[in-house]
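JOB MANIFEST
job_type = single_chain_structure
chain_count = 1
residues = 99
[input]
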Amino acid sequence: MTTDPAVRLERLLGRVLRAGAITSTMLLTLGVLLTLTWPGSSLAGGLTTAGLLILIGTPVARVLASVLRYAAERDWVFFGLTLLVLATLGGSLVVALIE
């Protein structure tokens, strides 16, 4: 296994994105199929909503994974930059929820 930090980070981020995409796709597919089978089902709506939330949250999880990895590697410049990106995403979420 390689010890290059850049390669490890790319693999970690790839796993995060893959897991988010697969999970959201499965939930959205199940939600749509249930909606077509049983219109008005609360389970179908819940699955669809969960799929959309995971789809939206996947990039945030990627940034969070980057922040944690840069902190572990003590790469403070990139840690600070990705932390700024994470704070911007969090601030956007707060503003969206308030308005």
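[summary]
Residues 5-98 form one domain.
The chain has one domain: 5-98.
exit_status = 0
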